[in-house]
Amino acid sequence: MCLRRLLQSSQLQRAWRAAFLKHVQGRRLGARRWTHSGGGPYRAVIFDMGGVLLPSPGSVATEWEVQNHIPSGTIVKALISGGENGPWMKFTRAEITTEDFLQEFGRLCSEISKTSVPVDSFFSLLTSEQVTKQFPVMTEAITQIRAKGLQTAVLSNNFYLPNGKSFLPLDRKQFDVVVESCLEGVCKPDPRIYKLCLERLGRQPSESIFLDDLGPNLKAAASLGIHTIKVHDLETAVKELETLLGFPLRMAVPNTRPVRKTMEIPKDALEKYLKDLLGTQPTGPLELLQFDHGQSNPTYYVKLANHQLVLRKKPPGTLLPSAHAVEREFSPTPGARDYVARQVQTWIKQYRASETSTIPAMERLIEWLPLHLPRQQRTTVVHGDFRLDNLLFHPETAEVVAVLDWELSTLGDPLADVAYNCLAHYLPSGFPIQPGLSDCDLTELGIPTAEDYFRMYCLHMGIPPTENWNFYVAFSFFRIAAILQGVYKRSLTGNGSLREPASG
Questions:
Q1: Which one of 59, 172, 467, 472 is at 20 to 30 Å from 120 when CA atoms are compared?
Q2: Do 349 and 449 share a domain, yes or no?
Q3: Residues of the chain below pLDDT 70
């Protein structure tokens, strides 16, 4: 799990805004005044790839070096070593093969770090699906730019993969022009590659904006008369681009999208209900968007006149009897005693109801868990989904100022929350659903182990450590597996809240 990114205050603030839209009177989100709408002097926006649309090699290297016990900065030093004649630049001009590059680059990294460096591992990570997902904020910006009739392009110092294809994990339909150094035999900051991009766009330098994360590349573009933006962080870069273009590049409500066809709801009936409830006669139609997040229950943004609301509902189709109980979100549901035993039986039933095939590991847990219930349990308020991304942090200090997502809260054993919050400690960093920490050097990262975390909790609570820690961890994983099984079964029938139905 990339803890540093999760703890960045700007991202947490965005999550807060998306999750908790307040009932606002007389305001509209994103009510910023714009000078013009696509009619300004700029007609094309050119994007670098690594560091602008995708994570840069340097940012990928930072965490990889920690995980592989390589001195910090080794990869970046090797990338810039030798300048135009270094292995990286020769590789991006297709002057050497992937095999030759890895050999030469590995030797250089070893010289810099005074230790053996597994550059094959770094190259595999750099080109893996794990880190080659386009930044959503840039995808949204490109969509808005093209909607205004402006052109978009990619100008990248790129390379060939061992299969002979260039490394371009982007949707080419987003761009009018794609210029790759390995195909052209020339790379940034050589002025020729900028001129080539402008020529293919059919634009003058003064009509173009170029975004890159490296100073020399921007300096070369600026010398030709192209307006440049240095990308230190994505949000700042997008705001600067908005200022230059004169129109917004973000949707008025962050993290929303048009309602999926399978998740449509009767707008006319909803509008009539809200008019009666709110006592308003709006001049415009009801606005309805769907939030990107919310795997279990679809969540909608609703605007009627000056009222802004959030609507949650159960997904369509046949559902498990106790699943997706949105009533819990507005009804008190105090639990009885024997919380853990009840939870184990509940999730066994949920799993059985959504089972699609026999999984031996789940069968073993179904047999093992009821036989190893904790003998003693404390009863407190249990959150039910306690994890890092349900916490809101202070923007400047390492202080939790709010806990989100209380829909599963009840009275029960608090150790269930403690164990659930430690699941990342038992998952590898390459785990696709939730990257974990099991193969990370926690000491170097300054993160306590799961056992240390548990002991700290017991110390602060003034209670003796339980002997059943492994039970709580096993139950937490069983519960997650049961939830995922339900998600999978819903996807087979097209009832998933986020993804399209599974194809096979």
A1: 172
A2: yes
A3: 1-39, 251-252, 283, 294-296, 317-337, 494-504
pLDDT at 28: 38
Say how far apart CA 218 and CA 211 lie, in whole Å: 8
Whole-number Å distance between alpha carbons of 182 and 180: 6
The residue type of 426 is: Y
Comparing CA positions, the residue from 362, 366, 403, 399 lying closest to residue 385 is 403
Q: What is the pLDDT of residue 386?
A: 93
Rounded to the nearest 5 percent, the helix, strand and coil shares of the chain are 45, 10, 45
By residue range, what is the domain housing residue 74? 57-126
Q: Are 342 and 336 within 8 A, CB to CB?
A: yes
Q: How many residues does the chain have?
A: 504
Rg (CA), the chain: 26
Q: How many CB atoms lie within 10 A of CB 186?
A: 18
What lies within 8 Å, CB to CB, of 376 at 6+ separation is none
So what's the pLDDT on residue 330?
61
Kindly state whether residues 156 and 103 are assigned to the same domain. Answer: no
The residue to which tokens 């690594």 are assigned: 50
CATH number where 45 lies:
3.40.50.1000
Query: Does an H or E element contain 347, and which?
Result: helix 339-354
The strand ranges marked E within 240-340 are: 256-257, 287-291, 299-304, 307-312
CA triplet 120, 125, 130: central angle to 5 degrees? 160
Same domain, 175 and 231: yes
Say if residue 161 is in the same domain as residue 113.
Answer: no
**325 contacts: CB under 8 Å, gap ≥ 6:** none
